[in-house]
């Protein structure tokens, strides 16, 4: 019984932890990966039930070490998917975020890289903008005193510091583009930064868009905030 409980707990853990890397390296489809998530939750619950049965009716077969390991594996298997579900419920089901919702920055060099992406390169539209205004009202256009040349260089440096793949750095048009690959699933999300003159200041707008998925779990908004923080850090150096 002890070995069965531990085995179920381990399988539950692996069903939750492995789908991301397996999808990232093209070993399973995304639907299969998410199915593994769901099965992992069920198996995690089953492991806890089996452990309870063992404690109540076969106490002599229970060891503290194996019980703690089983609880850990089951807790991870249950908590990780549920945490993702809770996050999905707390943010709008959108995947295209911009600091300028009237005239969002347009992707240029990134366009051919998204040729096969389920999410089109065009901005998602007013329905998405309305949901963003409600969920992320703090995301606004930025103003700087630096020149366009300095801001393009600073933006490029900030993206490199964050480990993003630089796609385009166009000083003449004030455009910088990059791709950020998520660690676990390897999802590729694209970012474009646009720098325009506004009198004696420069206006910087940032847009981040996922290539796949209806909801980004708040990742694109967080990515923009992270880039803003890093850009500001580079500018003041």
Main sheet record: 6 strands, antiparallel
**Radius of gyration of CA atoms, rounded to a whole number:** 23 Å
Strand content: 15-25%
Give the topology string: H per helix, E per strand: HHHHEHEHEEEEH
- Specify the overall morphology: elongated
What structural class should be given to the helix and strand makeup?
alpha+beta
List low-confidence stretches. Answer: none
How far from one another are the termini?
61 Å
Fraction of helical residues:
40-55%
Q: Give the rounded overall mean pLDDT.
A: 95
Determine the number of helices (DSSP H or I, runs of at least 4 residues): 7
In terms of quaternary structure, the protein is: single chain
Total DSSP E strands: 6
Structure, explained:
With 237 residues, the protein is of the alpha+beta class. It has helices spanning 2-17, 19-24, 30-57, 64-90, 126-135, 148-161, 219-235, and strands at 96-98, 142-144, 165-170, 175-181, 188-198, 201-210. Strands 1, 2, 3, 4, 5 and 6 form a 6-stranded antiparallel beta sheet that branches. Strand 3 and strand 4 form a beta hairpin. Helix 3 crosses helix 4 and helix 6 (148-161) packs across helix 7. The longest helix has 28 residues, at 30-57. The chain is elongated. The mean pLDDT is 95.
What's the short version?
The chain has helices spanning 2-17, 19-24, 30-57, 64-90, 126-135, 148-161, 219-235, and strands spanning 96-98, 142-144, 165-170, 175-181, 188-198, 201-210.
């Amino acid at each position: 019984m002890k070995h069965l409980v531990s085995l179920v707990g381990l399988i539950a853990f692996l069903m939750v932890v492995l789908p991301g890397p397996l999808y990232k390296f093209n070993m399973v489809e995304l639907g299969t990966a998410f199915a593994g998530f769901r099965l992992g939750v069920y198996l995690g619950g089953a492991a806890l039930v089996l452990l309870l049965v063992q404690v109540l009716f076969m106490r002599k077969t229970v060891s503290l070490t194996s019980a703690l390991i089983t609880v850990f594996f089951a807790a991870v298997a249950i908590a990780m998917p549920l945490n993702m579900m809770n996050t999905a419920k707390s943010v709008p089901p959108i995947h295209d975020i911009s600091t300028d919702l009237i005239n969002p920055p347009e992707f240029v060099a990134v366009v051919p890289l998204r040729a096969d992406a389920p999410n089109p390169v065009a901005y998602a539209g007013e329905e998405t903008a309305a949901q963003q205004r409600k969920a992320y009202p703090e995301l606004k256009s930025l103003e700087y005193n630096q020149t366009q040349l300095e801001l393009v260089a600073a933006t490029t440096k900030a993206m490199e510091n964050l480990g993003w793949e630089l796609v385009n750095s166009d000083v003449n048009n004030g455009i910088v583009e990059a791709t950020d690959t998520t660690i676990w699933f390897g999802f590729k999300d694209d970012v474009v930064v646009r720098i325009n003159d506004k009198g004696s200041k420069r206006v910087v707008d940032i847009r981040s868009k996922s290539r796949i998925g209806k909801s980004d779990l708040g990742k694109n908004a967080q990515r923009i905030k992270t880039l803003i923080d890093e850009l500001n850090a580079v500018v003041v150096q």
